[in-house]
């Protein structure tokens, strides 16, 4: 059999909910608004491509219970105002029964108010904890929260007896939100943040900030919450300055592209909390996520000649969750929401999801894997 | 005759606002309509600054940011009702405009452009960095206005889309009315005089600095109120509202439609708000088309859409 | 002490990037009084074209030359298709045209290339050079050297060559320039291709440090524009000094005050300078003709 088995297919078949015999007449309307262009394009671009690819795959395989998916996909460019307009359009004009999207926390929060008002189930692809805390009836999300990323990193630091750290964060939404969450929980893990610097998302050189951190008395490790070019430049600058402290990056740069941009030499030894997707090749065969990540990876990389990233993985998981709920509930928004909340043990690329009435993220820390860059590739640090 | 023209323009805007919903196939169109009105409001402000007084600003989104965050923070920190927070935002914006306008407006052309741009960037930077107060780059929630549920109790049921369509439409109408009155007032004439030639205006006794400042402050209030309306209807706001691209968008709308004409600017706002919604069918080419439209209009209709078309029609009539 | 040295080197590196962008503004402004807001896109095109030509197997120097030549052609096209047809339009229309062009080029780049971040190898390796306890990358020296080379080139061009003087004459009074036999159309073509080439060169030099993607142009144009205005638009000396000053300001603020507000401090200084000297540091005085 060819390796290009779709993730959606394997899961749906596993759940035994596909009936290829049913006539493909009716359609299920699925909405999506992601940031395929603009400052968050490297989140939204793979997300858009993933959703388009998966819809194609499901429809080619006969749809969900014989009903094809009709996709309405918009590019909000990372602008929350546009995201709200598109959410309104999806609900009022395209009459979708469910929405996936919101690449950034800002766009997600804009879509949330529409989804909640109109009672449409919505799975967000953004990180911040306030999306699902407090729990909102119709809002779910697939990525780990930034708070969990901080916890994973701090646990690893504590195990290595690195307790005094310096932080250098991007001032974009991702970096700033994670910076705040890490500050919040540092003490719980016995970590003390003794230097705290930031940089702008378009900055070209972070050596002044890194110099300040390395000159802070007693600093034992550096943590860099951020995404885009910033973390690559930070990693290069740290090597340039010859700073011999362990460097932790966030899940925001969990892709092969990061190693290429930062350079294998400079990024040697960098640790970050990642998902199984990045280490699909070295996952042991018995790993529960092995099948899901390999099939998504080979499908995506075969179709787009582009490396998979964690973000595309978030969209893949959101699509899996949504379609498996639709398979159970049909095309009624309320029923889909209820089926989503009942989801239990669904294996995605990010982790294994089990939602409940008071948990709309459904992941725990075990889904995060502490990865280390060795010889220009990913390795398990634990 | 002059005042006739004013009432005709006002009537056109009024009829459009009232009549358009008859053609709306779904609630989403109310949302787009409300956005057009909000954008048009800040653009009418720019007509006063750029069209009347001939001064440029690449930082007016800064005032929109102040208006928007006044609505987000006013209820939480000062205990103001959201409606009064709009006024608070307008007052702060006016004060800020008066404060920085004095030194900035001595600059000309591109130097004025970079100074206003700097102001806009400073505002968006404060909104982004003062996380404890503003929620940072991920934005912050905005309290409900409460007027809609009050209307509901009074027996008038409106959807959120309809409600904001009417509110923004009404505010735009007031804004247009003020701008048209200003055009024919002594202050408006002084503004247009200095647009022609500052030296000439000065020789006929116009306090050039004062008149420029008036235009700057008035346009800042327009942008601020527009920002407030956006925040209130979105119920969520991020620093993007004060961003550089938003400033550019405003100026583009004004210039595209016709920067000397209140009605033209409204048309410009409508076109640039609608374009991205229409272009979703070829999302990949959106930027390409957007850029092309801007270039072509400026080349072939240098005075902006409405004035150029009007001039052509008049030319044919004679 | 070595911290200060590091801040200075960082400021020089970043400042030279800004200066290169600012220098690109100079020629077009001198020839036509247009501030070309698409200048940042030239930088992006230089970087992106080099990345893709290099990835296609061409050696880096050849890829760079091709990128610069292609970008120069884009510059000429911009002039012929968008600027020349709108001659005599007010400043604000020209701003909209060049911003429209920048959006157009960005949209095209995202279709022709992709939306990912890219980088190609540094010219002289990544082994940092130690200097008084601080470290600088060889590529930074290339950028700083490039900025100074372009500056001297422009300075010589405008003051020593007949062509350069023709450019200045055209800006000063187009009709008079035509009357004394200057082919003003050709001067404009030359100016746009040179500006675009300088932008592309900047892109080639800075990509190993800053990385490149289809949308890096806006940020670069913004900072370059600010730097050029700080120094005084149209003056190569102003562009160089303005750029480096801006870079040093940011690095010093990040080092000693607050990295969060380094851009803010830079813009506050620009505002302060403009209040005191409305034409920038080295700008020429203009008076309104009645």
Automatic annotation (TrEMBL), chain A:
Residue span, Leucine-binding protein domain: 27-362
Keyword annotations of the record: Amino-acid transport, Signal, Transport
Record's keyword annotation contains Ribosomal protein: no
Signal peptide: 1-26
Biological process, per Gene Ontology: amino acid transport
Listed InterPro entries: BCAA_transport, Leu-bd, Leu_Ile_Val-bd, Peripla_BP_I
Stored PANTHER family: BLR7848 PROTEIN (PTHR30483:SF38), LEUCINE-SPECIFIC-BINDING PROTEIN (PTHR30483)
Homology family: Belongs to the leucine-binding protein family.
Protein name from the UniProt record: Branched-chain amino acid transport system substrate-binding protein
Organism (species): Cohaesibacter marisflavi
Top-level taxonomy: Bacteria, Pseudomonadati, Pseudomonadota, Alphaproteobacteria, Hyphomicrobiales
From TrEMBL, chain B:
Gene Ontology, cellular component aspect: plasma membrane
InterPro entries with a match to the protein in the record: ABC_transp_permease, LivM-like
Principal localisation: membrane
Subcellular location per the Swiss-Prot or TrEMBL entry: Cell membrane
Entry keywords, A to Z: Cell membrane, Membrane, Transmembrane, Transmembrane helix
Membrane topology label: Multi-pass membrane protein
Membrane found in the keyword field: yes
Segments crossing the lipid bilayer: 7-24, 30-51, 81-100, 109-127, 163-183, 254-275, 287-306
Protein known as: Branched-chain amino acid transport system permease protein
Annotated source species: Cohaesibacter marisflavi
UniProtKB/TrEMBL annotation, chain C:
GO biological-process terms attached to the record: amino acid transport
Pfam families to which the protein is assigned, alphabetical: BPD_transp_2 (PF02653)
InterPro entries attached to this UniProt entry: ABC_transp_permease, BCAA_transport_permease
Entry's transmembrane regions: 7-31, 51-78, 90-109, 129-158, 179-205, 211-231, 238-258, 264-284
Keyword Acetylation: no
Example of a GO cellular component annotation carried by this entry: plasma membrane
Topology of this chain in the membrane: Multi-pass membrane protein
Sample GO molecular function, one term: transmembrane transporter activity
Subcellular location: Cell membrane
Keywords: Amino-acid transport, Cell membrane, Membrane, Transmembrane, Transmembrane helix, Transport
Family: Belongs to the binding-protein-dependent transport system permease family. LivHM subfamily.
Protein name (record): Branched-chain amino acid transport system permease protein
Source organism of this protein record: Cohaesibacter marisflavi
The organism's taxonomic lineage, starting at the top: Bacteria, Pseudomonadati, Pseudomonadota, Alphaproteobacteria, Hyphomicrobiales
């Amino acid at each position: 059999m060819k390796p290009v088995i779709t993730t959606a297919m394997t899961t749906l078949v596993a759940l035994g909910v596909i009936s290829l015999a049913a006539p493909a007449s009716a359609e299920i309307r699925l909405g999506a608004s992601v940031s395929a262009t603009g400052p968050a394009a490297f989140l939204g671009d793979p997300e858009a491509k993933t959703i388009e690819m998966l819809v194609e795959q499901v429809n080619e395989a006969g749809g969900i219970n014989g009903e094809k998916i009709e996709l309405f996909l918009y590019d909000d460019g990372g602008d929350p105002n546009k995201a709200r307009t598109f959410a309104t359009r999806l609900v009022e004009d395209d009459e979708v029964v469910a929405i996936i999207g919101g690449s950034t926390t800002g766009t997600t929060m804009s879509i949330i108010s529409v989804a909640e008002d109109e009672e449409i189930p919505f799975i967000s692809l953004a990180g911040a904890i306030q999306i699902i805390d407090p729990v909102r009836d119709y809002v779910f999300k697939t990525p780990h929260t930034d708070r969990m990323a901080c916890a994973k990193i701090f646990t690893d630091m504590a195990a290595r007896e690195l307790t005094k750290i310096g932080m250098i964060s991007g001032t974009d939404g991702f970096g700033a939100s994670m910076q705040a969450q890490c500050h919040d929980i540092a003490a719980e893990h016995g970590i003390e943040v003794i230097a705290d610097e930031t940089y702008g998302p378009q900055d070209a050189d972070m050596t002044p900030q890194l110099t300040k951190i390395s000159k802070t008395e007693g600093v034992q490790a550096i943590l860099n919450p951020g995404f885009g070019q910033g973390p690559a430049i930070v990693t290069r600058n740290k090597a340039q300055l010859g700073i011999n402290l362990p460097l932790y990056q966030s899940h925001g740069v969990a892709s092969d592209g990061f190693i290429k941009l930062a350079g294998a030499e400079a990024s040697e030894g960098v640790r970050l909390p990642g998902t199984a997707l990045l280490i699909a090749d070295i996952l042991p065969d018995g790993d529960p996520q092995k099948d899901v990540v390999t099939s998504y990876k080979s499908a995506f990389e075969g179709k787009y000649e582009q490396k998979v990233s964690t973000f595309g993985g978030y969209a893949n998981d959101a699509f899996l969750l949504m379609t498996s709920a639709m398979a159970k509930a049909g095309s009624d928004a309320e029923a889909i929401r209820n089926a989503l909340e009942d989801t239990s043990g669904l294996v995605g690329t990010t982790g294994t999801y089990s939602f409940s009435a008071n948990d709309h993220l459904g992941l725990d820390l075990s889904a995060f894997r502490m990865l280390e860059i060795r010889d220009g590739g990913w390795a398990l640090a634990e | 005759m002059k005042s006739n023209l004013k009432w005709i323009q006002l009537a056109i805007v009024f009829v459009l606002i009232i009549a358009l919903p008859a053609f709306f196939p779904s609630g989403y169109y109310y949302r787009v309509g409300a956005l057009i009105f909000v954008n048009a409001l800040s653009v009418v402000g720019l007509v006063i600054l750029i069209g009347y007084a001939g001064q440029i600003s690449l930082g007016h989104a800064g005032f929109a940011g102040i208006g928007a965050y006044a609505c987000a923070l006013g209820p939480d920190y000062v205990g103001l009702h959201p409606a009064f927070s709009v006024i608070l935002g307008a007052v702060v914006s006016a004060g800020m405009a008066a404060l920085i306008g004095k030194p900035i407006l001595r600059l000309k052309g591109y130097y004025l452009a970079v100074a206003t741009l700097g102001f806009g960037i400073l505002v968006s930077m404060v909104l982004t960095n003062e996380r404890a107060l503003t929620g940072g780059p991920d934005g912050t929630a905005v309290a409900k206005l409460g007027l809609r549920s009050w209307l509901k109790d009074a027996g008038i049921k409106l959807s959120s889309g309809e409600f904001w369509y009417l509110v923004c439409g009404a505010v735009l109408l007031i804004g247009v009315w003020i701008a048209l009155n200003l055009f024919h007032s002594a202050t408006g004439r002084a503004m247009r005089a200095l647009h022609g030639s500052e030296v000439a205006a000065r020789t006929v006794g116009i306090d050039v600095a004062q008149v420029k400042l008036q235009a700057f402050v008035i346009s800042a209030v327009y942008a601020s109120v527009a920002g407030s309306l956006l925040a209130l209807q979105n119920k969520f706001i991020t620093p993007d509202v004060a961003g550089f691209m938003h400033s550019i968008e405003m100026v583009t709308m004004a210039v595209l439609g016709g920067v000397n004409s209140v009605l033209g600017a409204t048309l410009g706002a409508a076109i640039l708000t609608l374009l991205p919604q229409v272009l979703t069918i070829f999302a990949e080419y959106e930027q390409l088309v957007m850029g092309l439209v801007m270039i072509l209009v400026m080349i072939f209709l240098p005075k902006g859409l409405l004035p150029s078309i009007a001039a052509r029609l008049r030319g044919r009539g004679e | 002490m070595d911290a200060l040295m590091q801040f200075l080197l960082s400021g020089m590196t970043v400042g030279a990037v800004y200066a290169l962008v600012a220098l690109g503004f100079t020629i077009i402004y001198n020839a036509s009084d247009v501030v070309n807001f698409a200048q940042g896109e030239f930088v992006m095109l230089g970087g992106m074209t080099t990345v893709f030509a290099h990835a296609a197997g061409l050696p880096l120097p050849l890829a760079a030359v091709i990128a610069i030549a292609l970008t120069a052609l884009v510059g000429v096209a911009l002039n012929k298709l968008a600027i020349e047809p709108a001659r005599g339009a007010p400043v604000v229309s020209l701003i909209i045209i060049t911003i429209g062009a920048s959006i157009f080029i960005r949209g095209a780049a995202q279709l022709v290339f992709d939306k990912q971040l890219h980088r190609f190898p540094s010219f002289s390796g990544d082994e940092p050079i130690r200097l008084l306890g601080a470290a600088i990358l060889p590529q930074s020296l290339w950028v700083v050297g490039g900025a100074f080379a372009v500056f001297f080139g422009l300075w010589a061009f405008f003051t020593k060559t007949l062509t350069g003087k023709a450019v200045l004459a055209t800006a000063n009074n187009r009709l008079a320039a035509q009357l004394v036999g200057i082919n003003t159309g050709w001067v404009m073509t030359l100016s746009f291709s040179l500006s675009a080439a300088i932008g592309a060169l900047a892109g080639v030099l800075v990509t190993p440090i800053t990385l490149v993607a289809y949308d890096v142009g806006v940020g670069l144009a913004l900072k370059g524009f600010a730097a050029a205005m700080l120094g005084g638009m149209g003056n190569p000396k102003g562009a160089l000094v303005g750029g480096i000053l801006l870079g040093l300001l940011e690095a010093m603020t990040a080092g000693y005050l607050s990295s969060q507000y380094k851009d803010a401090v830079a813009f506050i200084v620009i505002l302060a300078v403009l209040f005191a000297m409305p034409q920038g540091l080295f700008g020429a005085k203009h008076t309104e003709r009645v």
